[in-house]
Design a protein that fits this description.
Low-confidence stretches: none
Largest sheet: 4 strands, mixed
Number of strands: 4
Radius of gyration: 15 Å
Mean pLDDT: 94
Number of helices: 6
Order of helices and strands: EHHEHEEHHH
Helix content: 40-55%
Strand order of the largest sheet: 1-2-4-3
């Protein structure tokens, strides 16, 4: 990884270790940060199961159900014009990400995507949230998806928003 990008990977579910989450997280986080020309950053990625992410989702979002990925930015991001790129944080510690095994596996299979491609996409998506991107309205969603596509292209991962991925 270039310069001072630190990705601390915490494996709570051993399946993530076998799937190479540490390498996937390093690659995806690095690609997203380098694309934004950020050379100094810290991100924690936790690989967990659906039960754990459901508990986190309930605690932090009031939604007692599993989801694929959650992120917790270290800073509150200022509002920006719809569709505009957000101002990047001015601190190295960007935040934390949790990713759930069963949901990610099921989504990849249902969408006909390689598991590592889907996980990389979700991690890039989560990093963009740490950087202040969101998808609450159509212009912001379009900006975020365009950034995801461009970053994933640097990783040689096809457009995740295309219908047919096989």
């Amino acid at each position: 990884m270039p310069d001072d990008i630190c990705v601390d990977t915490v494996i709570e579910d051993e399946r993530w270790g076998k799937a190479g989450l540490e390498a996937l997280a390093g690659s995806a986080v690095n690609a997203a940060l380098v694309w934004h020309d950020l050379r100094e950053a810290e991100v924690v990625v936790m690989g967990c199961n659906d039960a754990r992410i459901a508990a986190l989702n309930a605690d932090f979002r009031g939604k007692a159900r599993a989801t694929n990925v959650l992120s917790w930015p270290s800073v509150d991001h200022p509002a920006h014009e719809p569709g505009a790129r957000p101002d990047l944080p001015d601190q190295a510690e960007l935040g934390d990400i949790a990713i759930a095994w069963e949901t990610c596996r099921a989504e990849a299979e249902a969408q006909g995507k390689p598991f590592d491609h889907h996980v990389s996409h979700l991690l890039v998506h989560a990093v963009l949230h740490l950087l202040g991107y969101d998808h609450e309205n159509d212009p912001d969603a379009e900006t975020m998806e365009a950034a995801e596509r461009s970053i994933l292209q640097t990783l040689k991962i096809p457009d995740p928003y295309q219908e047919e991925m096989r």
